[in-house]
Amino acid sequence: MLCALGALGVLAFAAWELWGTGRKEAAVQQELRTAFEFVEVSTTTSTLAVPDEVEADVEPDLPGGISADLARARFPEDGDALARLEIPAIELDKFVMRDVDRESLQVGPGHYRGTPRPGFSGNSAIAGHRSTYGAPFKRVDELAPGDTIRVHSADGIFSFEVVSPAAAFGDRLDTIDPDKVAAGSVIVDPSDTWVVSDFGDARLTLTACHPEFTSRKRIVVVAELVSEAVPLAAVFGGLDADELNELVTEDLGVLENSAS
């Protein structure tokens, strides 16, 4: 009897891991989709300048004529989406969280803090689950060179194309077992953090645990930016990087209170 109850417990836990966590993720993703509609409507360029068609709906209430709503979209708080990620080849359409902590990855892919946002120069990195919590990156192993990845954010809409590991990493592949290299992805150890370092270009790196249901390795897919990158000097109506850092703080409430 105890063995039978134990087996049922194991099955119940497995069912929750596979389906229960997916239902939770789907519910939050729907909430994010509703909240993100403002960004989809408001952003028509690669900056946060307010488009003419929505100018009447967003009041420039921060220093420099910046809308507080657009500022929140570009610098979301914990629990908010940073961007929308679309990969048609694997039927993926998910909202990306601003971090890769446990809570964030339970409701969608997460953006590695310390890497640039998608669309800027550098290596923007995003992680996601492959087996639980909706398994957004379950099929990343199917991606091949030339596949399109689109990112929608308050910075603009950006297009990327998957590239081969050889094109992405060059002679760094010499340190990896050739059996771990596929057409559009590579398998590395969790300690191989160099895959998310800056390679002097504008790219998007997707990472996930490998194989499915384990965390022994990481599968990595790299895509190059094929649309125009966002120049730092263009954000927030032409403020340069130093002015932007001075203006934007972690606490947008402080920023709002400084408005005249």
Structural descriptors:
7 helices; Sortase, Chain: A; 260 residues; disordered C terminus; alpha+beta; globular; single chain
Please tell me about this protein's structure:
Strands 1, 2, 3, 4, 5, 6, 7, 8 and 9 form a 9-stranded mixed beta sheet that branches. The chain has 260 residues and is α+β, with helices and mostly antiparallel strands. It is globular. The longest helix has 41 residues. 28% of the residues lie in helices and 21% in strands. The protein is built from 7 helices and 9 strands. A hairpin with a 4-residue loop joins strand 1 and strand 2. The chain starts with a helix and ends with a helix. It has 2 domains: 189 residues, Sortase (Sortase, Chain: A, Beta Barrel); 60 residues, no CATH class.
In short:
By secondary structure, the chain is an alpha+beta fold. It is built from 7 helices and 9 strands, in the order ααββαββββαβββααα.
How large a portion of the residues is in β-strands, by DSSP E? 15-25%
Based on the structure, what is the oligomeric state of the protein chains?
Answer: single chain
β-strand number: 9
Euclidean distance between termini CA atoms: 71 Å
What is the N-to-C order of secondary-structure elements (H for helix, E for strand)?
HHEEHEEEEHEEEHHH
Derived from helix and strand composition plus strand pairing, the structural class reads alpha+beta
Calculate Rg over CA atoms: 20 Å
The helicity comes to 25-40%
Q: Given this structure, which CATH class of the largest domain is correct? A: Mainly Beta
What kind of sheet is the major sheet?
9 strands, mixed
CATH superfamily of the largest domain: Sortase
The CATH architecture term of the largest domain is Beta Barrel
CATH topology of the largest domain, by name, is Sortase, Chain: A
Low-confidence stretches: 4-16, 41-61, 248-260
The outline comes out as globular
- Number of DSSP helical runs: 7
